[in-house]
Amino acid sequence: MLLQKKDTWLVKASREETEKSARVRAVAVALGLRLPTAQLLVNRGCETPEQAKRFLEKGTESLHDPLLMKDAETAARRILAVAESGERIVIYGDYDVDGVTSVSILHMYLTSLGADVGYYIPSRLGEGYGMSETSLRRLSGEGCRLIVTVDTGITAVEEAQIIKELGMELIVTDHHECHGDIPEAYAVVNPKQPGCPYPFKELAGVGVVFKLICAMEILRNPQLSAADNVRAVADSYADLAAIGTVADVMPLTDENRLIVSKGLSMIENSPRVSLAALLTACTPDAKAQKRKITSGYIGFTIAPRVNAAGRIRSASTAVELFLSTDREQAKLLAEELCEINKERQIEENRITEEAFEKISAEHDFAHDPVIVLSDEKWHHGIIGIVASRITEKYNRPCILISFDDAGDGTGSSAVSSGDIGKGSGRSIKGMNLVDALTCCRDLLVKYGGHELAAGLSIERSKLEAFKQRINDYARGCFDTEVPGAAIEAECELCPADADMELAIELYRLEPYGVSNPTPLFVMYDMKVAHISSVGNGKHTKLTLSKDSLVITGMYFRRSPAELDLYENDKVDVMFNLDINEYQNIKSLQFIIKDIRLCAEEREVLEREHRLYVAISDGTLDFASVSPHQAQSIVPRREDCAVLYNLLRRELRLEHDTFSLRALCCLLSAEGHPMRYVKVKYIIRVFQELNILGVDETDPEGEVYKFKYIYVKTKADLDKSNILRKLRTSFIQKQG
Fold first, then answer.
1. Per-residue pLDDT at 2
2. pLDDT value at position 610?
3. How far, in whole angstroms, is CA 128 from its chain's centroid?
4. If you write DSSP's letter for every residue of 595-609 in order, what string do you get?
5. 346 domain-assigned
6. Rounded Cα gap, residues 544 and 577, in angstroms
7. 722 in Cβ contact with 685 (< 8 Å)
8. Burial code of 144-176, b = ≥16 C-beta within 10 A, e = fewer?
């Protein structure tokens, strides 16, 4: 639609720049790659053929030495010693996918050593994030000697002191930001803590546990090389480490890329009993064909089901699934996770709808960069997902807070539980959410998280002050205003580039995810040969052509009416290159992420709009308009009759809503082309004379809803003030 705001398009490299780049050509020639693939590698920081080769090989031998991590050796030796002594070890984890997979792999490993090991994951609803004094006293009473935290603990300064007073030991493994004092523990393993020389700081919580297990294996088997020990750990646990890493939205670079690549291969080719059951439960009607396991499949299919357990019931269900080696038990647990996930989806949709209503009613977009909403009945475990959806839609940081009488998990009675709200936030590039919350720490009960995602607890009485404080902070992050959404393509493709060979070659860059996104390309000046709706009108299928290329494009979650595009339009397309497989036949297709009219057609529409504005506000130099041009602008009775008859026919077919572009295209298709300006004035005349009911459903996008009005006599167009003024302006000024 002409006036509808679009995302800003950015393109890292034009086709000409790709062809002229010496670095791109060097990578392409050395590794036998197509130029677009080489450009993608350069975009990902591979400046030389050697760096590009390492990126593509993804071997576990490239993992860093785990003993470089601060306290890793100290922690490994102590855990091994306690395991050998037979004293009780409890793994204290978080309830999300990262925490669940962290608990699972450390429990499996220690069990394989014969250790007396258990685990504890707090209830999201009853206890909240992190350790609580109540749970620690319970573990002490059960004979626990050593607590090992996973994916949590870096802020547990007070809890560490309680553990010490209870006569237990504490080892912290975590990956969250260190925004205060480090807990006093036997060892703290976190690559982000001050003074840690470990070269890669972006491990997930399960990644830190994975490295700790590697350290323990190196200490246990000094007769083997470090690479052999690491390889053995990867062969045993990379699958679950991959799931936790992808689910926690960690950058898929450096070690994460290697761990996830190895893990995806394991899940696809030889899944453990628990994962085989979960794969089947996720797609029970799928044919018994081998699944392609990608990071996207993990993120959108596996992770939500694992997460759902901790969100609305108990994360222990997911842990028990991963620990299970019995096929029947695994099947039942996997099916239970899928059922829990269905409950989660229903609740998520309810909260999302309510949140959008609150935004419309409450949020001041002109003044407040951060969307902060609260409610009495929102489920604590769901608000984080909804916050993500809001941030994605509005491109603004969002914090949702629930006061549903569940307490703060601290065991404190200073404030009644209904006066403590639990919040979950998401941010955008430009505002580190943990830093923003640190600025508000005196208003919070507790908080923690990452740059773009965090959790918090807050007293009801401090909510308004918090809203003001965090928005004051955000205004300093974004200069004058929150930046508009932008979509960035890796490089431009020409028609000759888009073939099956390139699509297959792109598989070598997987796994895709944060910092290694699925390649997004742009192709300019394509022709829309055909356009239709699919999926009950929810999605759009296009046939696009340019030169010798004819290809199908799928645009999901956008209808043809929303796209406002028509056959023979010339368009620019941003897309992923995809291989579609149907009935064992593979074909190339575009997965469209954005589409717009080409520059030439956009300029034509913009000129028409500027002309309409100039006529309407009287700034047009009418004397400069030729009589022939005036005829193309000023409606005649015949023009009005043509558009009226077209709309009456469409209304009989129960089609009542059209954009201005849609009407222009319909008129052209029927042999009556009219300019944008003329059609817009005819619609105004219809509205003025009550010839048809006309509602502007989207004035910015120029969308109209029409209604038939029965009249006994023909309308007298000469009674239209709009038309009379328009005719007079041109005649007098030109006369």
1. 41
2. 93
3. 25
4. EEE-HHHHHHHHHHH
5. no
6. 14
7. yes
8. bbbbbbbbbbbbbeebbebbeeeebbbbbbbbb
Residues 391 and 521 in one domain: no
Interatomic CA distance for residues 425 and 372, integer angstroms: 9
Residue 175 CA from chain centroid, whole number: 21
Measured at the alpha carbon of residue 573, what is the angle toward residues 567 and 577, in degrees to the nearest 5?
Answer: 115
What is the total residue count of the chain?
735
CATH number of the domain bearing residue 403: 3.10.310.30
Q: For residue 241, give both structure tokens.
A: 């480490």
Q: Give which of 10, 217, 247, 209 is closest to 103, Cα–Cα.
A: 209
Quote the domain boundaries for residue 574.
Answer: 8-14+487-597
Q: In which residue ranges of the chain is pLDDT below 50?
A: 1-5, 288, 406-416
Given this model, what pLDDT does residue 45 score?
Answer: 92
Residue entry with tokens 């064909």: 289
CA distance 525 to 172: 56
How many angstroms separate the Cα of 609 from the Cα of each of 82, 435, 661, 724? Answer: 76, 45, 12, 21
H helices within 316-462, ranges in order?
Answer: 316-323, 327-362, 383-394, 433-439
Residue 418 lies in a domain: yes
Same domain, 110 and 248: yes
The Cα–Cα gap between 371 and 321 comes to 37
Decide: 387 and 399 in contact? Cβ < 8 Å. yes
Q: Phi first, then psi: give them for residue 169, nearest 5 degrees.
A: -110, 155
Where do the DSSP E strands lie in 94-252? Answer: 116-120, 144-150, 169-173, 187-189
Q: How many CA atoms lie within 13 A of 19 on its CB side?
A: 7
Residues 657 and 549 in one domain: no
**Sheet architecture: strand order including 169-173:** 116-120, 88-92, 144-150, 169-173, 187-189
The domain total for the chain is 4
Identify each DSSP E strand in 143-294 by its residue range: 144-150, 169-173, 187-189
Closest of 508, 558, 567 to residue 534, by C-alpha: 558
Contact between 295 and 246 under an 8 Å Cβ cutoff? The reply is yes
CB 176 within 8 A of CB 64: no
- Establish if 148 belongs to a structural domain: yes
- Residue identified by tokens 């009613």 is 361
Residue type, 163: I
d(CA 207, CA 241): 6
What's the pLDDT at 575?
98
Asked whether 594 and 487 are in contact (CB, 8 A), the reply is yes
Distance between CA 513 and CA 101 in Å, rounded? Answer: 19
Per-residue buried b or exposed e for 396-414, using 16+ beta carbons within 10 Å of the residue's own CB: bbbbbbbbbebbbbbeeee
pLDDT at position 337: 96
Residue among 557, 528, 556, 558 at smallest CA distance from 543: 528
The verdict on 109 and 69 lying in the same domain is yes
The predicted pLDDT at position 5 comes to: 46
What is the per-residue pLDDT for 289? 58
Number of H helices, E strands in the chain: 27, 21
**Does one domain contain both 79 and 226?**
yes
Does one domain contain both 709 and 676? Answer: yes
> Own/partner pairs for 561-566, CB < 8 Å, 24+ apart?
561/657, 561/659, 561/662, 563/531, 563/595, 564/1, 564/4, 564/659, 564/661, 564/662, 564/701, 565/528, 565/531, 565/595, 565/597, 566/528, 566/531, 566/661, 566/662, 566/665
Structure tokens at 33: 């790659």
Q: Which residues pair with 398 in a beta bridge?
A: 371, 426
Cα 175 from Cα 96, distance rounded (Å): 14
CA gyration radius, the chain: 31
Interatomic CA distance for residues 419 and 416, integer angstroms: 6
Q: Which 3 state secondary structure label does DSSP give 561?
A: helix
Contact predicate 461/403, CB 8 Å: no
Q: How far apart are the first and last CA of the chain?
A: 36
How far out from the chain centre does Cα 671 lie? 45
| Contact indicator for 259, 207 with CB cutoff of 8 Å | yes
User: Would residue 242 count as lying in a domain?
Assistant: yes
Which pair of tokens denotes residue 228? Answer: 């052999």
